[in-house]
Write a structure and sequence with these properties.
It is built from 10 helices and no strands. The protein has helices at residues 6-12, 15-38, 42-69, 78-95, 103-131, 139-160, 163-174, 177-202, 219-227, 230-260. The protein starts with 5 loop residues before the first helix and ends with a helix. Helix 3 packs parallel to helix 5 and helix 7 packs across helix 8 (177-202). The chain has one domain (20-206, 225-260): Growth Hormone, Chain: A (Up-down Bundle). It is mostly helical. The mean pLDDT is 83.
């Protein structure tokens, strides 16, 4: 198996910026955006966050099983990166873009886009995370790749943490705060797409094509398998409550900083 250079390892970790960065941005600023920028009620904004979190918990194992069952000769992990890099960038932009629809249409729009966001995020993150176990057999190298991935995620979060300042600065130039949020996340979406494509390019030739798939996974297996696994169901419930708690804490923190400490 080929050995990655340090440069390759740092470039390989770039998709971590896209997946973890956007996930953190949504859980942190999603509630604020829906209520204070778009004008949705707090209860419905929370409903959108909940739907997205539950959907994420459901799709994670399904995508993992689909990825595992693919033909190794055609690639089990990397094809997901090239297939969904652009859709992921687009939906990142749409998630923070308000088109001034009527209220009912607006609500449906954001529910659909939130589900699409979590779907594309899963379709990239799960195969990409699994790919790190194939690019090298060395434990230390895999640990280093995980660390680099986290490093890029932190870089992304640091970049996105200035979103309130960015939107305030851009608003006079683009016409409104709503437009400013849309412009910022169009840029973020573009950065995410490029980072995913770089990770796809750098990992060429490293995916294990000698894996033996013992049995074909049917659609029925995808639906029934996780539901028969009690440990999985317990873990899924814990995941949902943990992510919701994180979203509530970070969302409330944004309101506190904005209205109590006047950090706008």
């Amino acid at each position: 198996m080929k050995k990655m250079t340090k440069k390759q390892m740092y470039l390989y970790g770039l998709p971590g910026l896209a997946t973890l960065f956007t996930f953190t941005m949504f859980t942190t600023y999603g509630l604020y955006f829906f209520t204070d920028v778009v004008g949705l009620s707090g209860s419905f904004a929370g409903f959108i966050m909940t739907i997205g979190t539950v959907w994420d918990a459901i799709t994670d194992p399904l995508v993992g099983m689909i990825s595992d069952a693919r033909d190794p000769q055609k690639g089990r992990r990397r094809p997901f990166l090239i297939a969904f890099a652009i859709p992921f960038g687009i939906v990142t932009w749409l998630l923070f873009t308000s088109w001034n629809f009527v209220e009912t249409t607006q609500k449906i729009y954001f529910i659909v886009v939130a589900i699409l966001f979590y779907t594309f995020q899963t379709l990239i993150d799960i195969p990409y995370t699994s790919l790190s176990g194939e690019v090298t057999n060395d434990y230390d190298t895999r640990s280093r790749l995980a660390t680099i991935r986290t490093f890029w995620a932190i870089v992304g979060v640091a970049l996105g943490s200035g979103i309130m300042a960015y939107t305030s600065f851009l608003a006079p130039f683009v016409g409104s705060i709503k437009n400013a949020w849309s412009v910022c996340f169009a840029i973020f979406g573009f950065i995410c797409t490029i980072s995913i494509l770089i990770g796809w390019k750098v990992s060429k030739g490293y995916e294990n094509q000698e894996v033996i798939i013992k049995e074909k996974v049917t659609f029925k297996d995808l639906l029934n398998g996780p539901l028969r696994n009690k440990a999985f169901l317990h873990l899924t419930a814990a995941f949902i409550f943990a992510i919701l708690a994180q979203a509530v804490f970070l969302g409330v923190l944004v309101y506190y900083l904005t209205y109590n400490l006047q950090y706008k």
